[in-house]
Amino acid sequence: MMGRQSSQMEIAIVDLGEMVPKTHLLKRIDGMVDFSFIYEKAESLYSSQGRPSIDPVLLVKMLLIGYLYGIKSERRLEEEVKLNLAYRWFCGLGLSGKVPDHSTFSQNRRRRFRDSGLFEEIFVTIVARCVGLGLIDGELIACDGTVNEDGQREVIGAAEGMKEDKESWRNFLVSLKERGLTGTRLFIGDKCLGLLDAINTVFPNAKYQRCNVHFYRNVFSVVPRGKMKDVAAMLKAIHAQEDKAAAQEKAKAVFAKLKEMKLKEAAKKVEDSVAETLTYMAFPREHWLKIRSNNAIERLNREIRRRTRVVGSFPDAYSALMLVCARLRYMEDSLWGSKHYLNMKHLKAMEKEAEMAANLEAG
Prior knowledge:
The chain is 56% helix and 7% strand.
């Protein structure tokens, strides 16, 4: 006899905690990490009057779920928390509790937590506690690509166990040097202080170019939305100049204009960091567009994110490294690695001219 499930409505008393296995990561975190410190830290950012806000612990717990399970979109995070019983239990929502709208996160970042940095501090503190308790692995995977002497992009290294401090980056760069990396003229990256120190130690003759895109984003983080377009136009004007001297003069004008617009924080960021974004102007003009940002390796980063997001979490860093290396080999054999990215004859001609000029001065 064929069985058929009944679709009748059922009323039951359910303990979500009993439905979540004891071995579940979120259950282990809930039992070992005390989230109550968030209330004290965030108290000064909330008014003592008016309607009660969404619980800040709930917001942090939802973001932590997104981080642990590779949920990058806040819209998707909202849907996942609605449907997943373990997520609901961890957030203290029960079966009928309303999940905060995805726009709540962006509004809190833009308004309540914008100038304090507290939201990021709380989140980093909790992740660090999870790492310290051995609940998650806090190690990162670093991969590095280069443009070789033939003008083609090439993956030259990948390593797990990175901490983004000077020692980790120094060990990574030393390993590349020991494997035969020589003649390095330029490093391109965002402003990671550990990497900068390591470059100066291991490759003292190489120049450093800060990614223009990351620089723009850093400035935009302290600019009101209504003034974003104007500031973007001013920043782009700096890098549209014909040479480095003109770009430096334009940067001074932009700094003064930002101060007039009462954007003191943005002006300070431009004054302190714009010089790092102009290093590419010491290289052939034909290369400028492709060496002033991280675009040369961003395609790799997107592919790695796409593949690792499917897995979500890995049992250990080594298993993640194996997947990353497999995709890197695939990308290097594809059009990404076989296509000519830079015409190196321009660089060789520039270096030859510089050498001849130096010889004339010495003679």
